[in-house]
Amino acid sequence: MIQISVILDKIRAIVFDPKSFWKLQKEKNEGLAVLLGSYFIPVLLIVVLVVFLGEFFRSAHFYGMFALLKAIRKFILFLLAFFTSVYISNILIKTFGGEKNIKLTRQLIAYSFTPILLVSLVTGLFPFLYPLDILGVYSFYIFWVGGKELLTLPEQKRDSYLVLAIVVNFVIFSILSIILTQLLTAFF
Predict the structure, then answer these.
(1) Secondary structure of 38-72 in HEC code, one letter for each residue
(2) Under 8 Å CB-to-CB from 135, ≥6 apart: which residues?
């Protein structure tokens, strides 16, 4: 069963005290089902619901189909970005002489998406606040702190890996967002 208080505590820890959060997280052995089922998917579903409601009530005619498609686009975007980023980030670890660990990489990506998901929550409900999307850049810091704590990389290559992984993940997210937006606009 999903416990909202646990999710909120994780969000608070990730946003306000990422160093302590990552130290505690390193000791946990969360599998993919637990990570997705007890944190990432529930938060994403709340964002999707808010995006649907924001788009639905923004429309002059309460046009539900466009709102639904926009919500589905958001869901697919974050899921594809998650799995693609995990895969590529994990491969890059080996390239930089580190020890691949898919479980830790999944945690790093999923929890690093938290600021972007929170910003999407606000901009989904109030689309006119899209300039606030810049606050999602805080995800890079969360990733940086988590990468230093979780991943086993040679000290001299760690920063290079983190910079490259952040850039690659940003590009992945951007490309997926553009493609999915183009697909959405193709219908309307």
Answers:
(1) HHHHHHHHHHHHHHHHHHHHHCCCCCHHHHHHHHH
(2) 115, 119
What one-letter code names the amino acid at 147? G
φ, ψ (nearest 5 deg) of residue 26:
-60, -30
Compute the C-alpha angle 87/89/90, nearest 5°. 65
Quick check: 133 and 123 in contact, CB under 8 A? yes
pLDDT tens digit sequence for 156-181 = 999 999 999 999 999 999 999 999 98
**Residue owning tokens 């589905």:** 72
Amino acid residing at 133: D
Spatial distance between the Cα atoms of 86 and 55, rounded to a whole number of angstroms? 30
Q: Encode pLDDT of 120-164 as tens digits.
A: 999 988 878 878 888 989 999 999 999 999 998 999 999 999 999
For the chain, what are the domain ranges?
4-187
* Whole-structure pTM value: 0.90
Q: Count CA atoms within 13 Å of residue 38 on its CB side.
A: 13
Examine the pLDDT at 60 and tell me if it is beyond 70: no
Do 10 and 21 contact (CB within 8 A), yes or no? yes
Report helix, strand or coil for 152: strand
